[in-house]
Specification:
By secondary structure, the chain is mainly α. It has one domain. It contains nine helices and no strands. Helix 3 packs across helix 8. The longest helix has 35 residues.
């Protein structure tokens, strides 16, 4: 019987047990978890990234390797989703999507979200649960140019990996309290990320408004 990941509660992490599990299976757990999550399969990719940063701060892993593997697996996984959407088509995704919680109604909503905010939404899709898992599939169904998707995907994956893993790494031992005691650097980092997202939304809204006029 294959071992399963223990329940992870970021407010009360059992880092000893989790560290032992992850050390036994190595970095491949981080790679596979993020890779599978990136094209819709139920895997705790984002949780693994955060926990990886925490454990790296405790000396169990290399934060550089965690970031590198997280970035590579996220980009590869999203491209697998893109290929599924592009070559298998919408009918295939509707038929089999229900097995990964992607029913027709949900697919319709995600497609409308893409149409409303444009292809640049791939950049921020990594930070939105649900959209993170299926943005590649939707981009493929919509026949977005692969080079454009790849560029936005790389930017989004880099921001996502650096954001969560670095915050967890910086927080270190305080992560058991869900980052309860931020330093000025952490506040600055989060403020910069929020500013970026806010400017992106304003840009898209202004562009759409001018286009309507």
């Amino acid at each position: 019987m294959n071992p399963t990941l223990p329940d992870i509660n970021l407010f009360n992490l059992d880092l000893t047990a989790l560290s032992a599990y992850l050390e036994h299976h190595g970095y491949r757990i981080f790679f596979l978890g993020i890779f599978f999550e990136s094209f819709g399969l139920p895997a705790p990719g984002e949780t693994l990234l955060i926990v990886g940063g925490i454990l790296a701060a405790k000396g169990h892993f290399s934060i550089i390797l965690i970031m590198a593997l997280g970035f590579i697996s996220a980009v590869l996984g999203d491209n697998v989703g893109y290929a599924i959407g592009l070559f298998a088509g919408r009918r295939f995704c509707v038929k089999y999507g229900r097995y990964i919680f992607l029913g027709e109604r949900r697919l319709d909503k995600l497609e409308k979200f893409f149409e409303k905010y444009g292809s640049e939404v791939v950049i921020v899709a990594r930070f939105i649960a649900g959209l993170r898992q299926f943005n590649g599939i939707i981009a493929g169904i919509g026949k977005m140019r692969w080079r454009k998707f790849l560029l936005y995907n790389i930017i989004g994956a880099a921001l996502w990996v650096v954001c969560w893993s670095s915050i967890a790494y910086i927080a270190g031992n305080r992560a058991e309290g869900m980052f309860s005691a931020f330093t000025w650097f952490e506040y600055l980092f989060l403020a910069g990320l929020l500013l970026f997202l806010a400017l992106f939304v304003v840009y898209k809204f202004t562009k759409k408004k001018h286009g309507t006029r």
